[in-house]
Design a protein that fits this description.
Strand 11 and strand 12 form a beta hairpin. The chain is an alpha+beta fold. The strands form 4 sheets. The protein has an 8-stranded mixed β-sheet. The chain has a 4-stranded antiparallel β-sheet with strand order 15-16-14-17, covered by helices on one side. A 3-stranded antiparallel β-sheet has the order 5-7-6. It has 14 helices and 17 strands. Bound molecules: 3,4-dihydroxyphenylalanine. 3,4-dihydroxyphenylalanine (DAH) binds next to strand 12 and strand 13.
C-alpha cells in the first residue's frame, strides 16, 4: 500500500520494520513494550538495557523495530519475466566448513530441574547432552549457565543442533536446496556453501565485524541470547561474513539456525533459519562495464536476486525498497507480490567497504544478502504456523519430499485453542520478550500466541497489562487440567522472575 508521499508501508517480518513503517500487527491495543530502533544501552548491564527499553517504548509507542533494518524509501517496479520453476535437487554441496574457531568458554553447569520443569519436559524434544558442529562438541553446560550474563533457557538449548536446514525432506531443507540449485545453475557451481557453522559466535563476529553500532538495540539482552558477555547465539548468518572473507572466499552461501528473543505468534519463533549470500568482484569486472564499482555490484545483485525470486515463485511482480542495514550501503529489500500481498523476501546491499578492508580486500567491491527461510517456506508450502516446522508428527513430516518445492501442506485437524488471561502491574524492567520467554519455557510449543489485550496507567502512575495467552497443540486436544497447570506455572514464574504484581 502506498501512502500520500508514495512510500510503501507493509507488514514487517524478521528483517525489519521501520520507525516510519507500519506497526507489526494491528492489535486492539498499542503494544506497550516494543523493540526500539536505537537505544543507548550497555549490553552488559541488564538493568540499564531494560530501563532504556522501557523509556524508549514509552516515548515511541508506535514503533516496532526488529534488528538491523530500517526502510528508507519506496520502490521501483520490476518487469515480469516468464520463467518456469525448476525442481532439481542440488548438484553439489561442496566445501562445508569443517573447522572453525570455537568460542565457547568452559564453565560449570547448573542442571537441576524443579518438578514443574520435569513435568513440562513431557512435551519437549529431548535435550541432547552433546552436540557437534563441524567437528566441535558442545554440551548443555557450554550454553545454559547459572550466570547473570546468560539468558539462554533450556527450551532454546533443546533446539541447538536440530539443523532443520540440513534435512532434505524438511521444508526448510527443500527450500535451501532449491536456492542452492539456482546458484549452482546460474553461477556454474562457483558459490561455496556452508551449512554447518557453529551457531555459537562471539559478540565480535555477530555485531562488531559487520559494523553493528555499539548502541544498536539488537545487542541488548532483551533481543539476543547471550551465553556470556562476549558470546552469543548468532542472531543472523551475517555473523560469518567477515571470517569467510578473511579466509579468502569470494562467492559463498551460509545457511544456519539463528536465535532471537521475540514475541509469540504464528510467524515468530525464537529459532529460525537464514541464508546469507556474498559475492566479491575484482576491479577488472566492473572496469570493463564502464560503471562505477558500487552501481555495478548493485545491478548484479538485483539481477541475481530477481532471478532467485523467479526460480522460487515463478513469474511474480517484484519491487525494490530502499532500506538501511549497518553492513551495506546502499541497502535494499526485495518484495514480491504473492497472493494479493507484498511479501518481503530478503534484505541485501553493497557491502560496506570497511568490512572488505578489514578482510584485506581493499580493491574489491561486494554484494551481500540475507533471507529468512521460514517466511518463504510458509508461503511456498502453505504452512500456517511456524511451530509446525519443529513438529515430528508424521502427519506433518510425511507430506514433504526431497526436491519437491511445490507441494502444499494439507492441515490435519485443527485442535481448539484455549485462552487464558493474566493481568499484572508491571515494573520498570518489564519487557514482553521476557514474558514470552517464561511462557515458552513453561508451555513450549503449546504456546500459540501472547497478546497484550489491555494496558492502562492509574492515577498513582502504576501501569497494568493484561495478556491473553492462547494455548493450542498442533497435534492433539489439550485437557483443561493440563492447561490450568501450565497457566498456574506461568503465573508463578511471571511473579517470581519478573517481579510483577499479579492482579
Ligand atoms: N542480517 C540481516 C538480518 O538478519 C539480513 C541481511 C540484510 C543480510 C542485508 C545481509 C544484507 O547480508 O546485506 O536482518
Amino acid at each position: 500500500m502506498r501512502n500520500q508521499t508514495g512510500h510503501v508501508t507493509r507488514d514487517s517480518e524478521r528483517f525489519k520494520p521501520t520507525p516510519r513503517g507500519k506497526k507489526k500487527k494491528k492489535r486492539n491495543l498499542t503494544r506497550s513494550v516494543l523493540i526500539r530502533p536505537y537505544l543507548l544501552v550497555d549490553p552488559l548491564n541488564l538493568d540499564a538495557t531494560l530501563n532504556a527499553a522501557k523509556r524508549y517504548s514509552t516515548a515511541n509507542p508506535e514503533y516496532y523495530q526488529r534488528p538491523f533494518s530500517r526502510v528508507k524509501s519506496v520502490a521501483m517496479a520490476v518487469p515480469l519475466a516468464q520463467t518456469t520453476l525448476l525442481f532439481r535437487t542440488s548438484l553439489l554441496s561442496r566445501n562445508a566448513l569443517r573447522s572453525f574457531t570455537t568460542c565457547i568458554p568452559s564453565s560449570s553447569s547448573s542442571s537441576s530441574y524443579s518438578s514443574s520443569e520435569l513435568h513440562r519436559k513431557k512435551w519437549r524434544q529431548p535435550v541432547a547432552s552433546v552436540l557437534e558442529f563441524g567437528g566441535v562438541k558442545i554440551g548443555r553446560e557450554d550454553v545454559v549457565r547459572d550466570d547473570p550474563t546468560n539468558n539462554v533457557p533450556d527450551s532454546i538449548f533443546s533446539r541447538l543442533g536440530m539443523q532443520l536446514h540440513r534435512r532434505d525432506q524438511h521444508p526448510i531443507g527443500i527450500l535451501k536446496n532449491a536456492i542452492y540449485e539456482y546458484f549452482d545453475t546460474s553461477y556454474s557451481n562457483t558459490f561455496d556453501k556452508f551449512d554447518n557453522l557453529c551457531p555459537i559466535v562471539s559478540v565480535k563476529q555477530n555485531f562488531d565485524d559487520v559494523l553493528v553500532p555499539a548502541d544498536h538495540v539488537s545487542r541488548s539482552y532483551n533481543d539476543t541470547y547471550y551465553i556470556d558477555s562476549q558470546t552469543v547465539l548468532r542472531c543472523h548468518t551475517s555473523a560469518h561474513q567477515a571470517e569467510l572473507l578473511r579466509k579468502g572466499h569470494t562467492h559463498f552461501l551460509v545457511t544456519g539456525d539463528v536465535y532471537r528473543r521475540d514475541s509469540i505468534d504464528s510467524t515468530h519463533y525464537p529459532v529460525f533459519h537464514q541464508m546469507e549470500g556474498v559475492r566479491v568482484f575484482q576491479p577488472d569486472e566492473w572496469e570493463a562495464s564502464g560503471m562505477d564499482a558500487t552501481s555495478y555490484a548493485a545491478e548484479d545483485l538485483k539481477k541475481c536476486l530477481e532471478g532467485l525470486a523467479r526460480h522460487l515463485f515463478g513469474a511474480v511482480e517484484m519491487r525494490w525498497i530502499d532500506a538501511y542495514f549497518p553492513f551495506t550501503n546502499p541497502s535494499f529489500e526485495l518484495e514480491i507480490y504473492f497472493k494479493e500481498k507484498w511479501l518481503e523476501v530478503l534484505g541485501c546491499g553493497v557491502m560496506e567497504q570497511e568490512i572488505l578492508k578489514r578482510a584485506g580486500r581493499v580493491n574489491n567491491v561486494a554484494w551481500a544478502f540475507g533471507l529468512g527461510l521460514e517466511r518463504l517456506a510458509m508461503v511456498l508450502f502453505d504452512i500456517p504456523d511456524i511451530r509446525l516446522f519443529w513438529s515430528n508428527d508424521e502427519r506433518f513430516t510425511s507430506q514433504f519430499s526431497k526436491g519437491q518445492l511445490g507441494i502444499k501442506f494439507k492441515p490435519f485437524s485443527k485442535y481448539p485453542p484455549c485462552y487464558k488471561d493474566m493481568s499484572f502491574w508491571i515494573n520498570e524492567s518489564f519487557t514482553e520478550n521476557n514474558l514470552c520467554e517464561i511462557v515458552r519455557g513453561v508451555a513450549g510449543d503449546l504456546a500459540e500466541e501472547v497478546l497484550l489485550i489491555d494496558n492502562f496507567t492509574n492515577k498513582k502512575g502504576m501501569t497494568s497489562h493484561c495478556y491473553r495467552i492462547a494455548y493450542r497443540s498442533m497435534e492433539r486436544s489439550l485437557t483443561d487440567e493440563e492447561i490450568n497447570e501450565l497457566q498456574w506455572n506461568v503465573r508463578d514464574q511471571v511473579q517470581s522472575k519478573l517481579n510483577v504484581v499479579l492482579r
